[in-house]
Amino acid sequence: MSGLVSYRAGLAAEDAVARLYARSGRAIAAARWRGTAGEIDLIARDGAEVIFIEVKHSVTHAAAAERLSRRQMDRIYGTASEFLAGEPAGQNTEARFDVALVDARGQIEIIENAFAA
Predict the structure, then answer these.
(1) Residue burial 89-105, b: 16+ Cβ < 10 Å; e: rest
(2) What are the φ/ψ torsions at residue 60 (nearest 5 degrees)?
(3) What SS3 state is found at 4?
(4) Is the dihedral angle over the CA atoms 7, 13, 101, 97 positive or is it negative?
(5) CB 34 within 8 A of CB 81
(6) Whole-number Cα distances in Å, 86 to 13, 35, 46, 79, 114
(7) What does pTM read for this prediction?
């Protein structure tokens, strides 16, 4: 895929995942939230819990999952920490990290609390 096509496919995947979370009653608090450590694709709220969502798009769900590296996870942790600093409970805010895998057909697989595995 060319860079622009890949970029647009990624944005479309993020939008589809945001709609899925919103339909399930989880409000989207931010899209492409940027801190000094990096960017988080989506941030949702489920009551008091904050959900940090990394969206991965590829031909298959397995190929999308392979695109998440330890380095990326560390960057997401750092960025999430920056976001939580602005929450009323700060770092004590209940939070989890989900990964949303989107395949070439637009099918979405959500792995809740993926970083804990």
Answers:
(1) eeeebebbbbbbbbbee
(2) -125, 165
(3) helix
(4) positive
(5) no
(6) 27, 12, 17, 12, 23
(7) 0.93
Q: What are phi and psi of 77, to 5 degrees?
A: -60, -45
Q: What is the pLDDT of residues 8-17, one digit of tens each?
A: 888 899 999 9
Q: 């380095």: which residue's tokens?
A: 71
Q: Where are the extended beta strands (E) located within the chain?
A: 27-34, 39-46, 49-57, 95-102, 108-111
- pLDDT band for 117, please (50, 70, 90 cuts): low
Instruction: Return the CATH fold of 3-116.
Output: Trna Endonuclease; Chain: A, domain 1 (3.40.1350)
Place of tokens 């970083």: 115
